[in-house]
Amino acid sequence: MTVLKVTDLNVYYGVIHALKGISFEINEGEIVTLIGSNGAGKSTTLRAISGLVPQTSGSIEFLGQNISGMPAEKIAGLGLIHVPEGRRIFPELTVENNLQLGAYLRKDKKWIAEDLEKVYNFFPRLLERRKQLAGSLSGGEQQMLAMGRGLMSRPKLLLLDEPSMGLAPLLVREIFNIIREINASGTAILLVEQNAYMALDIADRAYVLETGTLPLAGSAKELLQDTRVKKAYLGG
Asked: In degrees, to the nearest 5, what angle opens at C-alpha 43 toward C-alphas 192 and 203?
């Protein structure tokens, strides 16, 4: 089943043509990654899908429903959840309050406590710090909190923008292991990540984004071996 289908998507920032007619899709149970250099349009793609930037033309379908032009909060309510670059947690609230805010749009209140427990199973460190102010957490813990808050919405598709940014190598491994676990629990994932090797290592399929276009696509294993990808993104 196709979870997300993006067709001929165009986005402009003023006169800048940021996305130039890109098309791709994500199927149920997949991790799909978008790799590319800074400024290629990766974050813009996620922001257009989640309704945070307007598209000029093209269509975005989520679970068979056209969500083009839909307000961001309605898109989130359908189960398409965006964990943005830079975490964007609420520093003056506790860890648990941040997580509870992730369930703000949900109507099934009786399952929220159960999902909170699941999030704490994914991120035991958040359980230890649940009464702390979120602003007092380390960078890695804040990333875990941002992902946990996203999971509290019971996403059918999770958009992750640069989850490893600024983290120490050991923490990067931990975050990527958790992404695998989240996916194994039934959530499709669209991953934008500067660490192309790690992204390709956990993804099923990948697209290469270059200045607003998608010149390369294939299985993640194929792209890991592709000489052009190796040269441009894998240091050799």
From this structure: 15
